[in-house]
Amino acid sequence: MTHTIENSLITAILCIIIFIPIYLAVRSARIKKTKKISNELSVIEKDLNLSLQAIEQFDSFVIAIDRAKKIIIKMTLKDYSPQLIHLKGITDCMLLEKKEGKAVQQLQLVLLGKDQQPLHSIVFYQQYIDNEGRLKKNTLIAAQWEVMIKAII
Length: 153
Description:
Elements: H1 2-47, E1 53-57, E2 61-66, E3 71-76, E4 82-86, E5 92-100, E6 103-112, E7 118-126, H2 135-152
Antiparallel strand pairs: 1-2, 2-3, 3-4, 5-6, 6-7
């Protein structure tokens, strides 16, 4: 009986020694990433004299909008490079799901111009790149962005 308790105690101590530093490292990396995103968006906001609202973070990018100036900022998390999307020439937008069978391959918001030609697209989910477990959440967020953009244009 005492050997079982001793072995359990040793196993618990080893788990604590191994898992606590891993947890702290992952937590620290997330905090640094969030801080980097916030700093980059602040720089963009100051440089372009924007007031960003409705900021959403996904697996591979961050999206934000200035409703007054009708500008969307899409920033990739790979190199933190921003892409400006002006909504002044946009007349409509629609959410498209590309499927193969029942599996969603891509979920994108297509921004259409005056002649109903696609001018921009924002990919909210891409199979094999983004986390499939977040597909439902990303679909809801994409639908909210569609409504928000339609209200602005």
